[in-house]
Amino acid sequence: MNRLKKTYEKRNATQPKMNHKSHIQHIQTLTNEMEQLREREHRLAERLISEQPLINELRHSPRFIKETDKSCLAALVDDVYNNFTSRLTTRFPNLTEMDIQYCILIKLHFTVSQIAVLSAISPTSVYQQKSRMKKRIQALEPELFTDGETLDEWLNEWQKEVFHAIFPPSERFVLSLSR
Question: Do residues 98 and 129 lie in contact, with contact meaning Cβ atoms separated by under 8 Å?
Fold first, then answer.
């Protein structure tokens, strides 16, 4: 991410100065292109996941997942979602191995009832586990979730943090003012 930011800054330093209006239009164009790329990336990731034989098997014939399946699912999520598990464990070291496994299943869009079968527990226990995970995450970052936002929603939006790392809040503020 730092390399992308440096490239962005270097490119801006070497380009001729634009007037304010054309600069805002250029930013809007880049923002729109970035949003289109993000949407395309999301569609491609969903398609890639949906074509995985293990995912299809677990969705259509849920069963208790073996250790080898857990490893395969973690590798898939890490490949598709930019080292998801390592980013999660680095940012939230208080999450357990079981929490990470649930996050992987949530990220892969398994339902509560499917997660229950895959984990050999009741759906109520899955809800309780998700609630405890959200509390553990909030213990480290209390303002992370918006009002009413579920763990599932937050996990599925977390990939967009790459954009936020490249464009800090001050630059996003400029982008929102230019609209």
Answer: yes
